[in-house]
């Protein structure tokens, strides 16, 4: 058992999986891997993700050190989110899951991507 | 958007992640990657996993083609679960998450493994 931040994890895999549980965090890492993005860009590019949930998930990812933000000194202020090395490495591990999906489900149709 | 089995997925990554959502499925893949195991072996080796949930998760993994079972014609009957190629390949993709955990959280302590 691993004890971390008041939570218990069965093993190192369980521990790492915690960072990408739920529907949105892996998808956000995927979108930010393409390059820094603004809040509205992320929201527009991810169907079904509300402003409230996006805000929560970005805060979680930032708190976990997977993403960071640049605040440009402009008027109106411009904020961009980008992956840290830790976030990039996490994404690079799970990215091959896309190929796995195609290999085992060749008929699934990814429209609009 | 991907439509599959009455569910909607944002992208191929989201689709694949669905197979390992929740706490137990990735852990079960990890334990079965070591070799075929019986129900009770799995239950004993994974702390906190109830018989009911283990039963559910094994059925889900079997339904998704990630594991299979061998029923030996013995008395009492012996049943062993093992990973299919599809399950093995899925696990091999996520296995490096363990190294990622150690790299970024070198102080976490994995007792009893």
From TrEMBL, chains A, B:
Entry keywords, A to Z: DNA-binding, Transcription, Transcription regulation
Q: Does the keyword Hydrolase apply?
A: no
- Which ranges carry the HTH hxlR-type domain? 11-109
Q: Quote the Pfam families the UniProt record gives.
A: HxlR
* Entry keyword annotation includes Metal-binding: no
Query: What is the protein's name according to its record?
Result: Helix-turn-helix transcriptional regulator
Q: Which species does this protein come from? A: Romboutsia faecis
Q: What is the lineage of its organism?
A: Bacteria, Bacillati, Bacillota, Clostridia, Peptostreptococcales
